[in-house]
Amino acid sequence: MITGDLCETVQHNCNIADAKYAGNFTMCVYLMKMREYCRWDKGYSYTDSMSKEEVGEWVTHRESLWDVLAQESFEPILIDGQAYDPFDTDAINSSLQSHGMVYSGGMGVRCVPHFFLAKLDQQQSYDDCQVVISAEECARDLGSPPAMTLENKIFIRKEAIRRMLWEKLQEWQWHKIENAASRAFSFYDFKNDVDAALDQMTEVESQSIILHEQGEVKASKMLGEQWKQMLVNVTSTRLELMLRAVKDFYADSISTLPVLFEQNKVPSIHFYAANMNPVRKQLCPSFLNVYQQWCEDGNLLVLQDWLNSSAIHWANICEQVLIMHANHSSELAIEKYIEMHKL
Fold first, then answer.
1. Count of alpha carbons within 13 Å of 97, Cβ hemisphere only?
2. N or C: which end of the chain has fewer CB within 10 A?
3. Using CA atoms, how far apart are residues 342 and 304, in angstroms rounded to an integer?
4. Residues in the chain with pLDDT < 70?
């Protein structure tokens, strides 16, 4: 039987990671994430109101805890008397299988460590990928990415996806303008039943996220270890974000978008457009153009035609970047090359 001790250990490691890396977020994103972190920690639903005083007190306490933990090392994970390195995800999950739990410990953007422990919802197999879907979480960090891929194993965190959708909804409600996000949310009844709408949208977008992670696995195999090593060695945060965006586009062009377009998954196409962050918009303005045209005339052919050129474009960019890296081109030269070859 898994006890609260395991949850406490994983949460302790999450707190250490936050103590070291929570400052990477911009102030606006940080405040929003801390508010929702407080909601999760206190067990509130998304419809429960929280006073500024309550949230402020929680944030102060959490930041004080981080001050204490900032220099500590991650603790080993103890299961049934056996100690595991917190990044030995496969071994830990083998021990947790009979307990109906799932764990992940890995590195995200900028080599930031992420940990979580949750109830196991289900496991699926797609081609040569194993997809592990988690439900309620008992330990998480501030960043709480909705999905992570370690080798050929994809972790889908339904609770984190649900929270991400809630944060996107909150962000849109501050502005109340018609855009890709409002179009995506319009397919669900958020006005009358927030929880049910979040559940429905979580199920739909979980499938899109699985497609993206499958694309990541395929792209990683095609690009090889050299790409992974290049990301580890990059010192420029800007270049790292650009390289990750390029690979994301490549993964989506061979996995996510073909399915969304072929199956005419309208809500997910809108949500994909809503998730175009500034770096992605800068590198691929053509998608926003064809997306807008599709919104106006509903003709999927314009999206499909764009996709054909997109897959070739991003494959070529990845290949050229690897050649430049192998030839010891400077990071600035690689940045300029990517900027000059927008789609």
1. 8
2. N
3. 19
4. 1-3
Q: Are 66 and 201 contained in the same domain?
A: no
CA distance to 229, 247, 331, per residue, from 224 (Å): 9, 12, 20
148 and 10 share a domain?
Answer: yes
Report helix, strand and coil shares of the chain as percent, to nearest 5: 65, 15, 20
Residue 178 burial class via C-beta count within 10 angstroms: exposed 0-12, middle 13-18, buried 19 and up: exposed
Rounded CA Rg of the chain: 21
Angle between helix 52-69 and 27-42 (nearest 10)? 100
The domain in which residue 133 lies consists of 4-162
Residue 62 in any domain: the answer is yes
> Among positive and negative, which fits the CA dihedral 41, 45, 47, 51?
negative
pLDDT tens, residue by residue, 172-225: 877 778 899 999 999 999 989 999 999 999 999 999 999 999 999 999 999 999
**Shortest CA distance to 223 belongs to which of 294, 139, 320?**
320
d(CA 324, CA 237): 18
H-type helices in 234-328, by residue range?
A: 237-251, 257-262, 266-274, 278-283, 285-297, 301-326
